[in-house]
Amino acid sequence: MKGVYEFLAQDRVIFGEPASEAVVQTANHYNANRVYVVASKTLNRSTDEIQKIRQALGDRYLDTFDECIEHTPRASVIELARQLRAAKPDLVITVGGGTPVDTVKIALLCLAQDVHDEKTLGEYRIQVDAQGQRHTPQVGKPPVRQVVIPTTLSAAEFTNLGGCTDPLRQVKDLYTGREIGAMAVILDPAITRHTPDWLWLATGVRALDHAIETVCSPHHQPFTDATCLHGLAMLIGGLQKVRQDHNDLAARLDCQLGVWLSATGIMRVPMGASHGIGHQLGAVAGVPHGHTSCVLLPAVMRYNESVNADRQALIAQAHGSPDASAHALIGAVIKSLGMPTTLQQVGVQRSQFQAIADGALQNIWVRANPRPIDKTEQVFEILEDCW
Description:
Elements (H helix, E strand, L loop, with lengths): L11 E4 L3 H11 L5 E5 L1 H6 L2 H9 L3 E5 L8 H14 L3 E6 L1 H16 L4 H5 L4 E2 L5 E2 L10 E5 L10 E6 L4 E6 L5 E6 L9 H19 L6 H23 L4 H14 L10 H13 L3 H30 L7 H11 L16 H8 L3 H4 L8 H11 L1
Helix pairs in contact: 1-3, 4-5, 7-8, 7-9, 7-11, 8-9, 10-11, 10-13, 11-12, 11-15, 13-15
């Protein structure tokens, strides 16, 4: 066995402490005196959580940006980059789910590369050529880093990969840079109680998707096998307990820790078509990030079973049912959480299949799928299985 595993440019994970206290601890640790906050609009305007953080920071607090938009359109990234340039913070605290985290990631890329407009931003997206080869632009060091307090289970805090939608092409592009991700992560289960149950559970399935596509990748690694299989068990148990009791903080923390373990393969091990086609369900049909995995994951597992049945058997074993079909087990878990399981349930139209398939072939994870996908007909096959 040969391979290379590159760790994130991430210093620390603080878990189980109140967010406002951990923010002060983190600002002290990094000697930060000019702290800018990016948060979801709901958290900032409908709860007191962001105000607690502002008050805890005191004179170090600069301003708050809460205009992040789902699926991260380019215009919102450019606007945040403009505001960060004006404020000149020495630390950004990001609070929320994948949307604010990705918005900050790509805004930091804009700062690192002096990008001021949407067209130039597009030049830094990861691209794949006709042969499926990935081309990743080099991105320098941004002038400021972010610390993330996640409120969903999207795992955006544990990767330096960000998604950003080009509305003109109807494609959700991927961007990366070594230091655009979280320098530190604060896992506070209490702050997640504001997250709607459907969003918590759906992004939890997204985290299951991270674990499963990492283990099932043709380029799997021993380190990620170990973390993802344990994370998978923590996630399934934690998600089922939270569905029964919204206020079970121990179960919520189990979910967060399961995400941490399950995210070790993102951008370290190639993912697959559930992630890749899922990006296009968001860009074309506006399907929420977590729901894309709820619908696609079992179908992609079925599509790939002929080439990676041995790897899928590890998933069934981690679930405690070694003789069962992994895709059936995961499908049952998704259904037990009350999540949608078909494209029709998430509002996708057959008329959108072509745009979804065309965009999917431009996605690095679709082209890295264990069973090769290089024709739109193959994407259609998976979409029909989800219909």
